[in-house]
């Protein structure tokens, strides 16, 4: 049995992506598609919506910011599926709204932890159980490119230069630290925390791609922008439907066996965009 996992998928783009994958794989009878969510009740309700459409999706609780929750899920997958994970889409994320009362330091800490640090942690925890010809997709945003261009020159140089995951973590820890002390602008940062978190995840995608290039499992990993989508995250102001937003991650998640590109790329509307 093959396995597909989409994090943060009880609503929005993630939910639409689970539905598309379930529709694709249902006729084969050879896939288990997992919808995951922090809240079990919301996750089960989302699954029930798809069950009523005849789509046999499965649910598992997952809070990517909770190490124990991640451990339970990875342990479950390891014990239940000897063949490993065939498809992982890191969709879970957070965006503080403009009207949020949260202080900037909290915004920076939580946003970087959720969208970058914990997402990277979960990815690394899943790496050992990724199957041959598996696909790994990181949901990013073109706001990452905007955030990159707004950085001070020294910070831009760091992101455009080779680095390790440890160095990238340290760089983002530095941003969070300076956000807390209030001197982030003096150190070349700015206040686009969401864009910065997705910039870090885009860079991590490139680094992971380099790490996996000689892996005999032939894993393809890519980052993508779904576009401006009508979801809770955008206060339903987006111009794309969730189904349209799910198109590019669906394309990357279902890349045929045997192809080698795109890999370690940033993809939007099914096209590679090179900017980092």
Automatic annotation (TrEMBL):
Keyword hit for NADP: yes
MF terms in GO: carbonyl reductase (NADPH) activity
InterPro entries to which the protein is assigned, alphabetical: CBR1-like, NAD(P)-bd_dom_sf, SDR_fam
Residues annotated as transmembrane: none
EC class (word): oxidoreductase
Keyword Zinc annotated: no
Family according to the record: Belongs to the short-chain dehydrogenases/reductases (SDR) family.
Name of the protein this chain belongs to: carbonyl reductase (NADPH)
The organism of origin for this protein: Clonorchis sinensis
């Amino acid at each position: 049995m093959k396995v597909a996992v989409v994090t943060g998928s009880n609503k929005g783009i993630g939910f639409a992506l689970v539905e598309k994958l379930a529709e694709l794989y249902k006729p084969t009878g050879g896939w288990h598609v997992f919808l995951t969510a922090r809240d079990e009740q919301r996750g089960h309700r989302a699954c029930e919506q798809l069950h009523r459409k005849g789509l046999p999706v499965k649910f598992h609780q997952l809070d990517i910011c909770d190490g124990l929750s991640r451990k339970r899920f990875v342990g479950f997958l390891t014990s239940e599926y000897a063949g490993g994970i065939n498809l992982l889409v890191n969709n879970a994320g957070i965006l503080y709204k403009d009207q949020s009362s949260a202080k900037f330091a909290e915004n920076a800490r939580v946003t970087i932890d959720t969208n970058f640090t914990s997402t990277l942690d979960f990815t690394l925890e899943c790496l050992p159980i990724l199957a041959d010809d598996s696909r790994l997709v990181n949901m990013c945003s073109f706001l990452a490119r905007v955030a990159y261009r707004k950085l001070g020159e020294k910070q831009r140089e760091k992101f455009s230069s080779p680095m390790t995951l440890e160095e990238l973590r340290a760089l983002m820890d530095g941003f969070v630290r300076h956000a807390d002390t209030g001197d982030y602008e003096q150190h070349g940062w700015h206040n686009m925390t969401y864009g910065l978190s997705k910039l870090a995840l885009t860079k991590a995608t490139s680094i992971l791609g380099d790490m996996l290039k000689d892996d005999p499992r032939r894993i393809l990993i890519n980052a993508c922008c779904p576009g401006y989508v009508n979801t809770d995250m955008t206060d339903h102001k987006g111009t794309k439907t969730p189904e349209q937003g799910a198109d590019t991650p669906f394309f990357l998640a279902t890349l045929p066996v045997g192809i080698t590109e795109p890999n370690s790329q940033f993809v939007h509307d099914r096209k590679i965009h090179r900017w980092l």
